Amino acid sequence: MASSRSPNGSSDNIVDSTPLMGNPNRSLEDGHSGRRFVQRQSLRQAARFLRQATSRRALREPSMLVRETAAEQLEERQNDWAYSKPVVILDILWNFAFVVVAATVLLLSRRDSPTKPLRLWILGYALQCILHMVSVCIEYYRRLQRRFLAFNSTDEGNSARGISGLGPRGNSSHYASLAQLDDNDTSVAKHLESANTMFSFIWWIIGFYWVSAGGRSLAHASPLLYWLCIIFLGFDVFFVVFCVALACIVGIAVCCCLPCIIALLYAVADQEGATKEDVEQLSKFKFRKLDDAEKFSADLHEPLGGIMTECGTDLPIEHTLSQEDAECCICLSAYDDGVELRELPCGHHFHCSCVDKWPYINATCPLCKYNIF
Fold first, then answer.
1. Are 283 and 266 in a shared domain?
2. pLDDT per residue of the chain (373 residues) written in tens, 0 to 9
3. Same structural domain for residues 288 and 246?
4. φ, ψ for residue 349 (rounded to 5)?
């Protein structure tokens, strides 16, 4: 019996037992470096947190596992976009502009005598921008190199599978995303960026204290230095608030409107998963609700929700679903009478309209991550 709650492999193996104990450097990096043009929020952390905070009646465990998988894909696309060539160039130009403005103001205000060491704070701020540009460049070229190596290894694997007669999609072990490769290797640039982020947060607090303590005397003694510090501090606050708000909106959308997220990923994704022919070969079923008489005659301890009947075959396969399993884990809607369902090789089933776009994004089950090939 196909069940959306009982996968072939136990779902407990893919549930993080400590969802709130992530990498502290990563969390600090995502939240506090406001002057960066690109922010990378941990969507998986948000999805897992909402799973803990939400009642099991509203979002049960299978539904949240599907949302965590979608959050992983969204985060991977976000990281790929963040390190794309146009964004990296824009990010470097953005931080370089801060360095130029800081150097110009320091030069024009060389005769000022502020009561607080604002020059030291501006120099530290400019140094952080320079370190950020260096780490971004290092990480960008590292990702290019790893993407090139991954592409070559995939080509070699496809050639070997073609020779052995398995076909280009015969072995799921060759499907390794860039995010999975990054998890296996932590670069020096990431350590540098994490340290720079922690220092920038502390440096922001120091600058805010100096500006607040100086008050109007700083504005009269060295107006250029004073207002430049105000601008830098204001930009940091603006970007932090913007990135946190955006992460909250995306996190809520992942949990409440997952079909919209899947449609968005499908619109921006390259052909990395299954083809149209692969999706059409997956089993399709039609759902039929049971009336009260059939439920009574079934003589089972749990109430039945309906029967899935395979479409397009002379000897259709039927699966009896309990009332709890007769719902889609993606849209959180119960199966209506006559609706078409798609069953994946692992046995999990969803609305055709909900899941058909997912294999184009990633050729795995969104619930148990079983490769559909």
1. no
2. 444 444 444 334 333 433 333 343 444 344 444 444 444 445 555 555 555 544 444 456 778 888 888 888 888 777 778 888 888 999 999 999 999 999 999 999 988 888 899 999 999 999 999 999 998 898 888 888 887 776 665 555 545 444 444 343 334 333 344 444 444 445 677 788 888 889 999 999 999 999 998 888 888 888 999 999 999 999 999 989 998 898 888 888 887 788 888 887 877 766 567 788 888 888 899 998 876 666 555 555 566 778 888 888 878 888 888 888 888 888 888 898 889 999 988 889 899 988 888 888 888 888 888 888 7
3. no
4. -130, 150
Q: Which helix (H) or strand (E) holds 38?
A: none
* Cα dihedral 265/148/38/263 (nearest 10): 0
Structural domain includes residue 190: yes
Domain hosting 244: range is 84-150+186-270
* Domain assignment present for 34: no
Cα gap 46→255, rounded to integer Å: 10
Residue 362 lies in a domain: no
Assess whether 136 and 283 both reside in one domain.
Answer: no
- Provide φ and ψ at 200, rounded to 5°: -65, -35
For the question of whether the overall pTM of this predicted structure is more than 0.85, the answer is: no
Q: Does 330 lie in the same domain as 190?
A: no
